[in-house]
Design brief:
By secondary structure, the protein is an alpha+beta fold. It is built from 7 helices and 11 strands. A hairpin with a 2-residue loop joins strand 2 and strand 3. InterPro entries: Extensin-like_C. This is Extensin family protein.
């Protein structure tokens, strides 16, 4: 009987459109007990409520941007005058600069910029016509010399057609003998004949002549004033000679030294031959020019525009 009633009940539910629950046990064919019928349907489980946060806790709670909740962000440091320059921290910037400099310094040698090699001009060739005329004029003055082999010492040093000069005039020696270009040897011979000998005859006893030009330097491969940097010396081209003293026919030696205030005839002789040298040489440096020339006269025939002379 009970089974029949249950079937009728299910048929009624189906006809009226009722649906079975999606989950849960199927209806039992046994009637519920009194305890099950009276038991209340359990309420859905509730999570314990979180107690409300105090204002202090809200302030300490981290915000989405990583700062502190409602706390004002820490202001950027400002300079002493209170103005915000908006510039990055100097120390941090200096650190980056120093790091960059350190990186450049620590680069291997092969990665550093290489300095371009120094180029030197080749030894200048003599003009054949001018050279032949110079040699002819030098011989006519009675100079004693031999033609030497071409000199090329590299670094721009050398003489195309050097002369090994023993005497600039028949009775005036060059001691010691020296290698020099013909142009410089000819200027030295003419100066000695036309200026030095007449000055000696006037300054000293009548008939006194210069017998020897004592030279301190002719050809030598070096820079000016023996410096480690700078321009190459005219001595390295065979264009220059340094005269340290003169030996007179009476055996007396006149040394080159500072004589601007020397009121003797020796002082007058040195000043006279120094001034006259500017008529024969393009450069004349005496003890008054600088400390490097206090003991000699520097004479050279460097090429300059319009026959310009530098004498001091």
């Amino acid at each position: 009987m009970r089974c029949h009633i249950s079937l009728i009940f299910l048929s009624t539910l189906i006809l009226t459109g009722a649906s079975l629950p999606k989950t849960g046990p199927l209806p039992s064919d046994k009637p519920p007990t009194e305890t099950q019928a009276e038991a209340p349907i359990p309420a859905p489980e509730k999570k314990p409520e979180t107690p409300a946060k105090t204002d202090e806790e809200k302030k300490r709670e981290p915000s989405a941007d990583g700062g502190q909740g409602n706390e004002a962000p820490t202001p950027d440091p400002k300079p002493a005058d209170g103005k915000d320059t908006g510039k990055p921290d100097d120390k941090a910037s200096d650190g980056k600069k120093s790091d960059a400099a350190g990186d450049e310094k620590d680069k291997p040698a092969d990665e550093k910029a290489e300095e371009p090699p120094i180029t030197y001009p080749p030894v200048e060739n003599e003009n054949p016509v001018e050279y032949a005329k110079c040699v002819s004029d030098l011989k006519a003055l009675g100079a004693v010399f031999t033609e030497a082999k071409r000199i090329d010492d590299g670094k721009g040093c050398g003489i195309d057609k050097p002369l090994d000069v023993t005497s600039v005039l028949p009775d005036v020696k060059l001691a010691p003998k020296g290698l020099i270009r013909c142009e410089a040897a000819l200027a030295l011979a003419r100066w000695t004949k036309e200026a030095v000998q007449p000055a000696a005859d006037v300054a000293f006893a009548k008939g006194t002549t210069v017998k020897t030009l004592n030279q301190a330097s002719t050809y030598i491969c070096r820079l000016r004033n023996n410096a480690t940097t700078g321009k190459i010396s005219e001595h390295a081209h065979g264009n220059a000679v340094d005269i340290a003293s003169f030996t007179l026919s009476d055996g007396k030696t006149i040394e080159i030294q500072p004589r601007d205030e020397d009121g003797t005839m020796t002082g007058a002789f040195q000043r006279a031959i120094t001034a006259s040298a500017c008529l024969y040489f393009k450069t004349v440096l005496d003890p008054g020019s600088d400390a490097a020339h206090e003991t000699h006269l520097h004479l050279d025939v460097i090429e300059r525009r319009n026959e310009y002379r530098y004498c001091r």
